[in-house]
Structures are given as C-alpha cells and as structure tokens.
Amino acid sequence: MSAGDYNPYVTAQAQFDSVAELIGLEAASKDLLRQPLREYHFLIPVKMDDGTSQIFKGYRVQHNDARGPAKGGIRFHPEETADTVRALSMWMTWKCAVVDIPLGGGKGGIVCDPRKLSLTEQEGLCRGWIRAVAKNIGPNIDVPAPDVMSNKQHMLWMLDEYETINGARFPGAITGKPVGMGGSLGRTEATGYGLIYTLREALKALKINIKETQASMQGFGNVAQYAAKLYCELGGTIISISCWDNKEKKAFTIRNLAGLDIDELAKAVDTFGTIDRNKAKESGCDILAGDAWLSEDVDILIPCALEGQITAANVNQISPKVKIIAEGANGPTTPEADSVIKERGIYVIPDFLANAGGVTCSYFEQVQSNMNYFWEKEEVLEKLDTKMTAAFHAVHNLAKENNYYMRDAAYIISIKRVAEAVKLRGWV
C-alpha cells in the first residue's frame, strides 16, 4: 500500500527475527510465530448501482490466537495486498500482548476505493465480505473491527449479516459499532487518546514539559485528530500536519508556526482525513510539500498515516531537534530508517504500543457487548489510561534497565507472552 518496493510483511518478519534471536527463542516457536496460522483469500461479487456486477478481492488473516480470539480491523483500500494484511495481523498479535489483553492478532481487507462507491455498493461489499468468512469469525474465534476507510456503519452492516446468517444476536462478534447498537463510548477517541497517554508518560520519563513542546503530524484521520486534540489540551503545540489530497492524488502539508487550531481544522476535513486546503489558507496556514512534515524543527514527530512512510531515503530529513517519534500508524518506519533513528538516540514509542488504545477499547467493547452492560465514557477512558500507562512503563523500564531500544523492549515483552501461551497450550 506504500510507494516503492516496501513490503510491510518483510519488515514485520525482520523485526520479529531480530528479537527472536536476541531472546534465544527456540526454532519451533520461531517458525510458528513468524507467519500466520491461517489465511482466507476470497472474491466478493457486488451488484453495482448501474446494474453491472463487479468482483472485489477480500482477505482475512489470523496470525495467532494462542492468547485468545483473533482481533483486528478490516481495511478498505485500492492498494491493499495480502502481504500488508499479513504484516498487520502479526503486529496485532504483538499489540494485544504488549497491553496484556486476552486476544490474538488478525486483520482483514478489501481491495476497493470506498470513496468511489455509493452507500448501497459499500453495503453490498460489507455483507459479501461477511458471507465469505462467516464460518471463520465470531465472538470466540475472531472479532473484526474498522480500520483505514472503514467505519461504524460498515461494521453494523457486517454484524447484521453475521447475525442473519447465524440466526441469533452476537453483538460481541464485531467491534467499532455505533453507540446504542453495541458500540462503546470512548471508542472513537481511543486510539488517538491512547497514543497521547503513552507520549505523556514518555515526556515525563524524559523530564520534558509537554507545555514546552511542538509536534508535527502525518495524517489527519480519526487517530490523528483525537491525538492532536488531547496533545493540545495538555499544553502541546502542533505546527504542521500532512494529509492526502484525493483530487490531486498526492499529499500536502499545512503549517502555522504559531500553532494550528485543531478544532477549526477538524471542521474542515472530509471523512477520509483530507483537510480543505483553501480553508487552511484562509486561516493563515502555509501550504507545503507532502513530506515537509518530516523535516520540521519540532520536538515530536507523530506519523499517523500508513506504513512505510519514514524510509532510508528520507530519514535524514528529520531535524536534530526531534527528541521523540510516537508512531500512531502501523509500521510507519522501515528497518533501514529505524537503524538511523536508533543511532541518533531518538526516543521511539513503537507503533504496536503507541496505537494499542484502539484494540484495547475494542476489547472493552467486546466485553461490554458480551455481557450486555455498558460503561460510562469516563470509566472507559479511565480504564484505557490505566492500561496504556501500565504497558508503557513495562516497556520503558525494561528498555532502561537493559539498555534496549524501545521497539526491541516492546517486542521482547510481546513475543515472550505469546511464546509462553503457545508453549503452555502444547503447540510446540
């Protein structure tokens, strides 16, 4: 899904292999955990509004379910690939393990561009995806959720199709549903807020006052918007944001050195995270190249778009002033770029820790749906903060005590937890 020859699955496996060697993981466990347990590839026929039929490619990959039912979103993207889904399912396994929730890793996808589909066509696509995997998902098997360009309405259509096929109500079969239809309060904010909870703790650990920091972001979808909102509420200043222009088919960056008004920008963004550049100009923002966000003289970089965005080709554009990279996106940094960042001593909050707030709250939704009792928003966010803070300190303390890179420390905790579950089950 990224430009060039970048393959996220190769990255995911390379990251795993490095840590597996570091901790001396036995060969059988390594062979089992470096690839998915099972995959489903299928075709989805959809009747289009003009009367024609179109065939879409769909995926569901279950990387590992030793610690509990597989969990992971469903991406709608025209450049979706099997390897992207494989990588994301693997990262989901580590993500669930690092925050210590009883779930495994899964991921789904459909090769499509929902921006070019009517609501009726999107509904057909959602129901078709469920029909293809209905026997292989469920509240005790694999629980899907929304991801890039999929949303709560898509999830409700999917749940309705799943329940229709099974002839009963299973609200915990899918998360990310609308509030009032089995969805959890706080879920919309969860990934972005969770990201800032870990950033807040990192700044405390590094003895940096958040009120004296500036940040630059890539992406302005749901995750980035709520992360930006909370970061600014805590006293930070965001000076630039990069986003994708659907009309121009390229990214652009908006910048205001005095600080961006996040609330106003949120009013000038479409459902796919594209900021209205004319409104941005009217508010006093400069319009820059798409990769300008990376070279800003800020304290914090927050990539919240797609994988493979910080590469060997652009990593040296990062300003010497940058102290922290908080990875809101999945796999935004390639291994080659990661080596440079590590050498420079930049503090990284790795993706599967930083953005684990979403799956954590999805787990909360799953629990609430299964017991048919729902918590107030404040309780959800308090539980989320507790989970994310504990997970951060476990990783930070391990890294500090052993002089590990933060990404390696997070992987060590996750891989050990999953490997132990696999061993206790007698799989190896």
Strand content: 15-25%
**What is the CATH first-level class name of the largest domain?**
Alpha Beta
What is the number of E strands? Answer: 12
Kindly name the structural category: alpha/beta
Shape: globular
Q: Termini distance?
A: 34 Å
Strand order in space, largest sheet: 9-8-7-6-10-11-12
The percent of residues in helical segments reads 40-55%
In short:
The protein is an alpha/beta fold and about 425 residues long. The protein has helices spanning about 10-20, 25-35, 80-100, 120-135, 150-165, 185-205, 220-235, 260-265, 275-280, 335-345, 350-355, 355-370, 375-400, 405-425; strands at about 40-45, 55-65, 70-75, 105-110, 140-145, 215-220, 235-245, 250-255, 285-290, 300-305, 325, 345-350. A seven-stranded mixed β-sheet has the order 9-8-7-6-10-11-12. A five-stranded mixed β-sheet has the order 1-2-4-3-5.
